């Protein structure tokens, strides 16, 4: 006897064995699986086996295989390694995709939990939350003609990004990841901002709000400004000309000079001028030593940018040859040249001590000496740091300070203001401070111990 379609026995009698029906199981909380197993065991003993209800899938691929009704091992899965920063940034794009297809997407967190979100700082006091541990399923006809799922998460603490597609449709997964990268490149949330790259354990890139630095705050010979302008022209006024002729628009500028002549300040002036059209990345020494390759990988996604490497002596010196980080540093500089529109400006105290390999053409196009100021320069710098109406003969004071750097002159002005206040300044008093050397940060003898 077989029941007909509506489940009744054709003869109209009661079937001698009821067909197994799927029961809606109550949710038994944390004992769910154990309770089910026990009930199923009792039912089997009674000769009335009940259909097994599959446990909730744990992993993204179990879930997708179940949803798409395919064999889990046949799923097409494409993974890309991502840095912690890129992980958040891809999360940013994924968040936008989710919003675009809000009515259609299905999301799931890791291990049956809810999707997990993290905060992406965008600088200037703004932040967004983005998915960082989730599987997001875009049904057929949303991102692609085929269904595709993006999985983002952490494995053993390392972030990853994976796309899943139907068996035999690997290109759909590849396409989804390419589209994610393309969308990030097209509208990068960090584009045009000033970022600080540091390495508290691992590479971190964060938007910062630097104090703007103007050219008028810095007294340098005209030749230095001229070279600085040429350096920028590769990505500004001369960009199209260079590109049309197949030249790289990336350039490297090495600022060399003794401490306190304004190298850092010059780099900051460039950062102020170029932020906006370019993304600016300020790099600390700990990044230089260990994370250069990763850094330039990040930089590639940022579009035209200015990378400021401070004090490369710590990694680029002759002593460091043979160490892995020195090789990595050089490789990263070379790598920067293969990407267009990357300006790198680095500072060093002693270019002679730098390994010749650092100075090879192609790594830095220009080594620009930033000299201590001449007499006219010293006078201009003193004027900059003394009150404009102080009535001090800056030219006379400057003539006694041969060899002083901009930082020294700023100290002379500061010490004068501390001792005499803005109203008490005279040429004699400033001259006395300048010639006595009291402005130098030497320990004052006899005051302690
Ligand atoms: N040419 C200059 N014109 C005006 N101010 C200057 C000049 N040079 C130095 N200064 C003043 O001195 C400060 C320190 O200079 P800066 O940090 O740029 O020197 P640096 O060349 O980078 O030195 P270091 O090699 O020690 O890093 C500047 O912030 C600025 O206030
Ligand atoms: Mg400096």
TrEMBL record:
InterPro entries: AAA+_ATPase, ATPase_AAA_core, ATPase_AAA_CS, P-loop_NTPase
Listed transmembrane segments: none
Gene3D superfamilies with a match to the protein in the record: P-loop containing nucleotide triphosphate hydrolases (3.40.50.300)
Start and end residues of each stretch annotated as Disordered: 1-25
The keyword RNA-binding belongs to this UniProt entry's keyword annotation: no
PANTHER family given in the database record: ATP-DEPENDENT ZINC METALLOPROTEASE YME1L1, METALLOPROTEASE M41 FTSH
Family designation: Belongs to the AAA ATPase family.
Name the UniProt record assigns to this protein: ATP-binding protein
Organism of origin: Myceligenerans indicum
């Amino acid at each position: 006897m077989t029941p007909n379609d509506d489940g009744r026995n054709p003869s109209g009698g009661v079937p001698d064995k009821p067909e197994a029906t799927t029961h809606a199981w109550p949710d038994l909380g944390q004992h769910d699986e154990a309770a089910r197993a026990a009930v199923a065991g009792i039912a089997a003993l009674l000769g009335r086996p009940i259909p097994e209800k599959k446990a909730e899938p744990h992993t993204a691929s179990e879930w997708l295989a179940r949803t798409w009704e395919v064999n889990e091992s046949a799923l097409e899965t494409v993974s890309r390694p991502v840095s912690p920063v890129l992980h958040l940034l891809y999360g940013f794009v994924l968040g936008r995709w989710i919003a675009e297809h809000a009515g259609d997407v299905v999301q799931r967190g890791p291990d049956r939990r809810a999707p997990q979100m993290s905060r992406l700082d965008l600088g200037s006091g703004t932040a967004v939350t983005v998915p960082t541990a989730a599987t997001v399923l875009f049904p057929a006809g949303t991102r692609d003609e085929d269904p595709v799922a993006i999985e983002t998460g952490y494995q053993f603490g390392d972030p990853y990004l994976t796309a899943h597609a139907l068996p035999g449709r690997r290109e759909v997964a590849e396409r989804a990841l390419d589209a994610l990268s393309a969308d990030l490149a097209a509208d990068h949330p960090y584009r045009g901002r000033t970022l600080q790259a540091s390495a508290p354990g691992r590479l971190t890139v964060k938007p910062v709000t630097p104090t703007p630095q103007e050219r008028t705050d810095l007294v340098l010979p005209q030749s230095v400004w001229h070279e600085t302008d040429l350096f920028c022209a590769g990505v500004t006024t001369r960009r199209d000309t260079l590109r049309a002729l197949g030249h790289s628009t990336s350039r490297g500028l090495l600022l060399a000079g003794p401490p306190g002549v304004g190298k850092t300040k010059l780099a900051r002036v460039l950062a102020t001028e170029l932020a906006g059209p370019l993304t600016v990345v300020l790099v600390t020494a700990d990044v230089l030593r260990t994370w250069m390759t990763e850094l330039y990988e990040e930089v590639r996604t940022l579009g035209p940018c200015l990378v400021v490497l401070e004090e490369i002596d710590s990694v680029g010196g002759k002593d460091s040859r043979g160490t892995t980080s020195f090789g990595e540093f050089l490789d990263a500089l070379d790598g920067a040249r293969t990407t267009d529109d990357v300006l790198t400006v680095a500072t060093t105290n002693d270019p002679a001590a730098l390994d010749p390999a650092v100075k090879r053409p192609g790594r830095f196009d220009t080594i620009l000496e930033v000299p201590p100021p001449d007499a006219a320069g010293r006078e201009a710098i003193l004027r900059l740091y003394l009150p404009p109406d102080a009535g001090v003969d800056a030219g006379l004071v400057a003539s006694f300070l041969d060899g002083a750097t901009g930082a020294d002159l700023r100290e002379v002005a500061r010490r004068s203001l501390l001792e005499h206040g803005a109203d008490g300044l005279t040429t004699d008093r400033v001259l006395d401070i300048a010639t006595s050397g009291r402005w130098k940060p030497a320990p004052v003898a006899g005051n302690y111990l």
